[in-house]
Amino acid sequence: MAAYYGSSCAGRERYLWLDLGLVKGLDLELDMLTRAMALEMEEMLMGLAKQLQNQAQDLTLESHNLYH
C-alpha cells in the first residue's frame, strides 16, 4: 500500500482498493453467515422431521390399539 501514497490519482486508487477489499471481506462474511444459517435451518428441520416421525408412530400405535 505504500506505493499508493504518491499522487492524488494514486490516492484514489488506494481508496478504491480498500473499498474493494472491504466489499470482498463483507461478501465472504455474508457467505459464511449464509452457510451458518443454512446449517441451523437444516438442524431445525431435521428435529421437526424427527418429531413428526415420532408423532406418526404414536398415532399408528394408538389407532392400532383402538381397532384391536
Number of domains: 1
Strand fraction equals: under 5%
Instruction: Output the number of helix runs.
Output: 1
Report the span from N to C terminus: 81 Å
Regions with little confidence, pLDDT below 50 for 5+ residues = 1-8
- How many beta-strand segments? 0
Share of residues in helices: over 70%
Average pLDDT taken over every residue: 75
What's the main sheet like? none
Topology order in helix (H) and strand (E) letters: H
- Class by helix and strand content? mainly alpha
Name the overall outline. Answer: rod-shaped
Record keyword descriptors for this entry.
88% helix; 1 helix; 68 residues
How would you briefly describe this protein structure?
Helices cover 88% and strands 0% of the residues.
Give a written overview of the molecule.
The chain contains one helix and no strands. The protein is 88% helix and 0% strand. With 68 residues, it is mainly alpha-helical. It is rod-shaped and about 70 Å long. The chain starts with 7 loop residues before the first helix and ends with a helix.
Sequence-ordered SSE layout with sheet pairings:
Elements: H1 8-67
